[in-house]
Amino acid sequence: MKIVKIIALWLLVAFYLFMGSMHFMQPEQYFAMMPSWLPAHTLLITLSGIIEISLALLLIPIKTRAIAAKLIVAMLVVFFFVIHIPESIGYYQTEDKKFIASIIRLPIQFLFIAWAWMFVKKPKSN
To answer: How far, in Å, CA of 65 to CA of 113, rounded?
Structure first.
């Protein structure tokens, strides 16, 4: 694996370990993002934190890297449509000052998807 891809992998692992742990250290920021129609906010925030940490750890072994990357991509797509877009719409409708930041955050989600997508293909065996 090229050095840039190795660095990108370890940064991705660190990113999801950090983001997953934030679900436990500062859950209040995730409560603000949760759509009102979803039930059991505390449970969902806890589960998503566990899932993010688990997927980060599953990126490390070569055997589980591709499936972990696919699951991260799937998770990000779901979050995009279930959390990020409705959040932006809600901010727009209520004229919340967070609307601009939420609009800026939308295309950044595609960068996160591309970052995980780098690891979807299984590396070739020697």
So the answer is: 15
The answer to whether the CB of 59 falls within 8 A of the CB of 65 is: yes
Q: Minimal CA–CA distance to 49: which of 12, 75, 70, 74?
A: 75
Angle at which helix 3-25 crosses helix 99-117, to 10 degrees, equals: 130
Question: Which region, left, alpha or beta, applies to residue 39 given φ > 0 means left and ψ of -120 to 50 means alpha?
Answer: beta
- What percent of the chain stands above pLDDT 90? 80
Tell me the per-residue pLDDT of 62-117, one tens digit each, with 9 for 90 and over.
999 999 999 999 999 999 999 899 989 999 999 999 899 999 999 999 999 999 99
Cα(2)–Cα(124) distance, rounded to whole angstroms? 13
